[in-house]
Task: structure prediction
Amino acid sequence: MRVVILASLVLIGFTACKKKELKKVEKAVTEGTWKITRFIDSGDDETASYASATLTFNEDGTLILTHGSTYSGTWSVTNDSGSDDDSNDSDLDFNISLPVPHESLSDDWDIESHSSSKIVLKDLDDDEPNKSDYLTLEKI
Result:
């Protein structure tokens, strides 16, 4: 019985820590405007193509991407252990209707690391399963 209680407490503690981390990411992204400082898509460095792009994450879950034109969408931070990406369960999800070839920004990105001024993201490439896509956002 003690083992079951101890295991339950550990699980509850882990879940609470994970939720705190997700809240930190949510708070960070909604405080300011972000730029793309690294974007590797299917092994190709596309960073220069996004030099003027900015992202604004609103607290209501909406997202504004300015890149020549203005695009709107939604975002969320999730703990998605059932997703098809790698083992990291914390995701920053973008849902933006973008024209080709920019549609690959709209994805469920694994959060590799984060701070109040920088977020490093990774995603298994949908087209080439042996490759990963990388996206780094930095606060302006």
In short: Residues 3-16, 82-87 have pLDDT under 50 and may be disordered. DSSP finds one helix and nine strands in the chain.
